[in-house]
Write a structure and sequence with these properties.
heterodimer, A: 10 helices, globular, B: 94 residues, Ubiquitin-like (UB roll), three-stranded antiparallel β-sheet, 2 helices, 3 strands
């Protein structure tokens, strides 16, 4: 029997990825390179926020107290967030945002397809609801990878730089945390070994088509899933939590 | 070459609609991006189930200065509306 604390951590892990990436993508609002892509970014940010809400609601329910989804989203400390290091990395230029998105989507898509079969009905339902959105995200970020990677000399160079910068965060979603291992046996968490090949193949295929190359012998960073974050996380939370910290209980 | 992406006209067919209707325009580098931009800009509130995009330069429009000669002659020709026929009662869907 899995430890109940493991389920809470796993739900937070899944929800926090979407929450923090949504916050990052939201920074593009009003700053996109063209109006159409500004809206596209906001759409994806809102998709992810909607998905995050479902996980936060579930986490609030599991907490057994009278916590709400807002408490879960806005009133935890940095070490209590389990998101991947990848999603908290800065937007950089447009290319870097899209490389980050592709590395995320190429894992998220296969994860959700497997999570549909979770023995936990809530997680299965959330996965089912999210798949269509994430299918579009993966299509969108894949096409931008190819468009810019196989674009001009300048766009190719920027994409390769972004890939070099972010690749060290690409493995973390494929390494199971203790709470994931704990939940695999009972069929609640996705056994990453079952999707690893699909994720890697998707990444290799798109990166090759984009005429980019995967950095070799890169040291892989981990820790986010256990609450150990990069220096960027505190700044994100400061901005994201500002309203709830200054005006506790604020609703709108 | 202009630095701006070309302009595209967007046509959407709604769920209950039988044909595509003009919705607006947008900028995109090519037709695939135009379709995706149209999806993101014009179908966020369930407006459609099908999209067409046409590069604006491929649309040839009538000249507004010709409007009088082109369209006003049709004004006083009510007999062109099929409302002067007596239809048999058996015909229900005309």
């Amino acid at each position: 029997m899995a430890n109940p604390a493991s389920l809470v951590k796993y739900v937070l892990y899944l929800g926090d990825n979407n929450l923090i990436l949504s916050q990052r993508l939201g920074e593009w609002c009003g700053h996109g390179p063209v109006l159409e892509q500004d809206i596209a970014m906001t759409n994806i940010a809102l998709d992810l926020l909607g998905q995050s809400r479902m996980y936060c609601q579930y986490a609030a329910e599991l907490s057994g107290s009278n916590k709400t989804e807002d408490d879960i989203a806005f009133l935890r400390k940095e070490q209590e967030y389990n998101n991947l290091l990848l999603v908290e990395q800065p937007n950089g230029d447009w290319g870097q945002t899209l490389v980050r998105q592709f590395l995320f989507d190429s894992w998220h898509y296969y994860l959700l397809h497997a999570l549909v079969d979770s023995k936990d009905q809530n997680l299965s339902d959330i996965a089912q609801k999210s798949i269509k959105e994430v299918t579009y995200h993966l299509k969108y970020s894949s096409e931008w990878m190819i468009r810019l990677g196989d674009g001009t000399d300048e766009s190719h160079k920027r994409m390769q730089n972004a890939l070099n910068e972010l690749w060290r965060f690409s493995e973390e979603p494929l390494i199971m945390a203790d709470y994931e291992k704990d939940l695999v046996e009972s069929g609640i968490a996705v056994d990453i070994s079952t999707i690893r090949e699909s994720v890697q193949k998707k990444r290799q295929d798109i990166i090759r088509e984009a005429t980019l190359s995967i950095p070799e012998d890169e040291f892989m960073q981990t820790g986010g899933k256990e609450g150990k974050h990069t220096e960027h996380m505190g700044y994100i939370l400061t901005e994201m939590q500002y309203m709830q910290r200054v005006y506790p209980g604020q609703e709108w | 070459m202009s630095k701006d992406w070309p302009l595209w006209e967007v046509f959407i067919r709604s769920k209950s609609g039988l044909h595509h209707k003009h919705a607006g325009s947008l900028h995109a580098a090519d037709e695939q991006m135009a379709i995706e931009n149209a999806r993101d800009v014009y179908t966020r509130r369930e407006e459609g189930v099908s999209l067409w995009v046409v590069e604006s330069k491929n649309i040839f429009a009538s000249d507004p200065d010709d409007a009088e000669a082109m369209f006003e002659p049709a004004k006083n020709k009510v007999y062109r509306h099929p409302t002067f026929y007596n239809l048999p009662d058996e015909l229900k869907h005309m």
